[in-house]
Specification:
Structural class: mainly alpha
Bound molecules: iron/sulfur cluster
Distance between the termini: 31 Å
Helix content: 40-55%
Order of helices and strands: HHHHHHHHHEHHEHE
Number of domains: 2
Strand order of the largest sheet: 2-1-3
Radius of gyration: 22 Å
Strand content: under 5%
Shape: elongated
Largest sheet: 3 strands, parallel
Number of strands: 3
Amino acid sequence: MSKQVDTKALADFLKPRLNARFKTWLKICANCALCADTCHFYLAHERNPEMIPAYKVRFISEILKGKAEINEAYLRKMYETLYYECNMCRRCALFCPFGIDIGIMVALQRAMLHNVADIRPAGLLSAIESYKQFGNQMSLTSEDWVDTLEWTLEELEDYYQNLEIPIDKKDADILYTVNAREPKFYPQDLQEAAIIFNAVGESWTVPSVEGWDDTNLAMFCGDLGTSKMLVEKTFRQAEQLNTKKVAITE
Ligand code: SF4
Ligand code: SF4
């Protein structure tokens, strides 16, 4: 946990991002707890009041009102609440009479923790480093990726005739992208996609270079720079190959 963080630094991050919608939500929440029963964390923790959705955004008000003493315990509590008591499913927003979207506000608080306090789960940080270096979360090189596509196809040769995984084919209808865990751990998923696309005669292709991993774990901790970079990589491939659509498996 970083100890170089003060309330002002956190407030300075929040203030320009608190648009009218966020401000209104914070103001109109009636603390009615109607959102409580919609949250699986609340139900799974014997209706612990700390798990009520509206309570998970208290850090915003505490920081803005200067009520929070930013010490290690406070940062740890914030981290645990934001990552282990909410998965930003946004179900509670559907049941709140005002439509207050707690999931979005949890995302804002996660972004504050990541960008100001340098705190997020180690797994997310490692995925972000991999995205930056390799363009995918599994640290696969383009050679690894293309090689996997080729051998998965070879394995099917005895069972399917004329099966193809078109790589960098121009003017296809669909640019097909995958979760990087598929070539790493579940190459059978690539085979199944190829079988289906070929069976229905789909016009499709996969890019040989960065842009093929459609996961965006950077988004989960508010690293919007990395998040944007990933989306751009995919759309750059779609543009270069002149595909009509991008299909994602996530
Ligand atoms: S978020 Fe909505 S449902 Fe939940 S306590 Fe506030 S007003 Fe009530
Ligand atoms: S968004 Fe968070 S608080 Fe709301 S229901 Fe989902 S997990 Fe619970």
